[in-house]
């Protein structure tokens, strides 16, 4: 404490604790590995071929409707270039196409996911939509010119990688910065990260634009959200 009675040491400790919270990593999990998702989508692909079930929709159907409602609210043109990062079974691409969007691309690093998505799109006569096997963490400089990038759970999975979560997040940010046009819209849905943590991580090159409404719950007299959905704009 100085002569004026200011507890500078305590202030530094509080700031340090806040920084640690904003930049914390999660315990690693198999959900952060390519092997896990390859197995998931190989099973889903077999199931789809057997009975026509597309598999799980990550975060549920409401998450897709939430994204589309936001795009409409932002008056995103029908021909805007839209990238679905970690497209999985391609369900979001289907819904975007049904909502009138015509310039759609989906990427996934799982070959089985790509094959499944192509089958699902073909079933809906949407084989003109591009779906490519791409590892987003290794594509900086090759994916460019998108007006909208959408992530529902991919950043979450990267954050759980047991080998290099920190490196993965850094590569993700670089790839995202290269993929989006200036002023482009980035929509992210996460069940791992809070609003404050996402704002902190995407502060480089992005400006917070809006929070998308998600279901809330009450615990201990406080309101919380099990899912966070935010919109950013590419600013530099």
- Described by the principal axes of the CA atoms, the overall outline is globular
Strand order of the largest sheet: 3-2-1-4-5-9-6
Number of extended strands: 9
Please state the CA-atom Rg, rounded to the nearest Å. 19 Å
Topology pattern, helix = H, strand = E: HHHEHEHEEHHEHEEEE
Helix content: 25-40%
**Low-confidence blocks of residues:** 1-9, 217-225
Largest sheet: 7 strands, mixed
Quick rundown:
The chain is an alpha/beta fold and 236 residues long. The protein has helices spanning 8-22, 34-51, 61-73, 91-98, 111-123, 154-158, 165-179, 195-201; strands at 81-85, 103-108, 130-133, 146-152, 180-190, 206-211, 216-219, 222-225, 228-234. Strand 1 (81-85), helix 4 (91-98) and strand 2 form a beta-alpha-beta unit.
List keywords for this structure.
236 residues, alpha/beta, seven-stranded mixed β-sheet, globular, disordered N terminus
Give the SSE map.
Elements: H1 8-22, H2 34-51, H3 61-73, E1 81-85, H4 91-98, E2 103-108, H5 111-123, E3 130-133, E4 146-152, H6 154-158, H7 165-179, E5 180-190, H8 195-201, E6 206-211, E7 216-219, E8 222-225, E9 228-234
Helix pairs in contact: 2-5
Walkthrough of the structure:
The protein has a seven-stranded mixed beta sheet with strand order 3-2-1-4-5-9-6, sandwiched between helices. It has a two-stranded antiparallel ribbon with strand order 7-8. α2 packs parallel to α5. The chain is globular. 40% of the residues lie in helices and 23% in strands. The chain has 236 residues and is an alpha/beta fold.
